[in-house]
Write a structure and sequence with these properties.
- It contains 16 helices and nine strands.
- It folds into two domains: 192 residues, D-Maltodextrin-Binding Protein, domain 2; 153 residues, 3-Layer(aba) Sandwich (D-Maltodextrin-Binding Protein, domain 2), CATH 3.40.190.
């Protein structure tokens, strides 16, 4: 999953260094961040956080530091796939990390996570039980993760552009294969997200491992390719606001920002969001503690702090991705609570699934098929 405003920190530098065999760049003081980490890794007043870029209100970090006396060292990552080898290699012992559902499953299966001591996280009671139940798809006993943000993947469409094309608003993934949309479609540049669209279109599970179903999805994506203006991730939001395309596949967490921008810019068209009838991805990002964490209790204090309703509310207002925190939800204005683009009724979502980790062999199959799509 991609968040807006991505920047690169220590992890990206270190990964590049690991791949190239080079040392990481020195800090202004002449000592690399990695060196600083090594010298203080046993400190009890520090917390090393690894999270998506711009996925937390910086004022929340400051408040945590002031309340606890714990210094937060915060590094962002861009994708789950960038994050995983950093944690697996153990070159940096991060204390708390925020992966997505399927990646948490992979980390559990590969014994990379520590069980959370929930005696130290009393505010877990603020997480809506529906999201704890959703977590069981990748953390069956709710031992390793605490939900942070959630959402769906759907279709964003430009009402005016569709009218100009003589088309009605989309309601199904299959509508993204309509030839009238030639050059007007923005697809996610992500193997699992792209295959989710094609698999769901055909009534298959987005976690399919069936070779025939995957082959059909591949062929459908290839046949759709001439209609696609671009494969994008973060750019879909700005391209749609700019009126550059009629439809785009997008994460629901972008909707509040999009709605505010459309209003602020006084555009003569509306951007609407729909969940396709065939079902979609219901995703969840959660906090976990790596097994080699040096400051586990500090990590649990961090998770508990972020579960406080007023803190979760502040985070939601900053990042605009839906919160699973029922206490925070209750603090929101009624118009936000009733905004179904941002907060769809989780109990009414049909045919939705959480991504599962399918194993290294199946991952390779998906990646090979995606390469065929992109190369055709």
């Amino acid at each position: 999953m991609k968040k807006r405003g991505i920047t690169y920190g220590l992890a990206a530098v270190l990964l590049a260094a690991l791949l190239s065999g080079c040392k990481s760049s020195p800090s202004p003081e002449g000592t690399s961040t990695a060196d600083n980490r090594e010298s203080s890794e046993n400190s009890s007043d520090e917390l090393y956080v690894y999270n998506w870029g711009e996925y937390i209100d910086e004022d929340v970090i400051t408040q945590f530091e002031e309340e606890t006396g714990i210094r937060v060292i915060y590094d962002p990552f861009e994708t789950n796939e960038e994050m995983y080898p950093i944690i697996e290699a153990g070159a940096i012992s991060y204390d708390v990390v925020c992966p997505s559902d399927y990646m948490i499953q992979k980390m559990v299966e590969n014994d990379l996570l520590a069980e959370i001591n929930f005696d130290n996280v009393p505010n877990i009671s603020q997480i809506d039980p529906a999201y704890m139940e959703m977590s069981q798809a990748f953390d069956p006993e709710n031992k390793y993760s605490v939900p942070y943000c959630w959402g769906t993947v759907g279709i964003l469409y430009n009402t005016k552009r569709l009218e100009e094309l003589g088309m009605t608003p989309p309601s199904k993934w299959a509508d993204l294969w309509d030839e009238k949309l030639s050059g007007e479609i923005l697809m996610q540049d992500s193997v699992r997200d792209a295959f989710m669209v094609a698999l769901k279109k055909n009534g298959f599970s987005m976690n399919s491992e069936n070779p025939d179903e995957l082959e059909q999805a591949k062929q459908d994506l290839i046949s759709q390719k001439p209609l696609v203006q671009a494969y994008v991730i973060d750019q879909v939001r700005d391209k749609m606001i700019g009126g550059e395309a009629a439809v785009g596949v997008i994460y629901s967490g972008e909707m509040l920002y999009i709605q505010e921008e459309v209003a602020n810019l006084g555009l003569d068209y509306q951007l609407e969001y729909v969940l396709p009838q065939e079902g979609t991805n219901l995703w969840l990002d959660s906090w976990v503690i790596p097994k080699n964490a040096k400051n586990k209790e500090n990590a649990e204090k961090w998770i508990d702090f972020l579960c406080r309703p007023e803190i979760a509310k502040a985070n939601f207002e900053y990042i605009t991705y839906p919160t699973p925190n029922k206490g925070a939800f209750d603090l929101l204005d009624a118009d936000l609570q009733n905004n179904k683009s941002v907060f769809p009724d989780i109990n009414s979502l049909n045919n939705c699934e959480v991504f599962r980790y399918l194993g290294e062999e199946t991952d390779e199959i998906y990646n090979d098929l995606w390469k065929e799509v992109k190369s055709n």
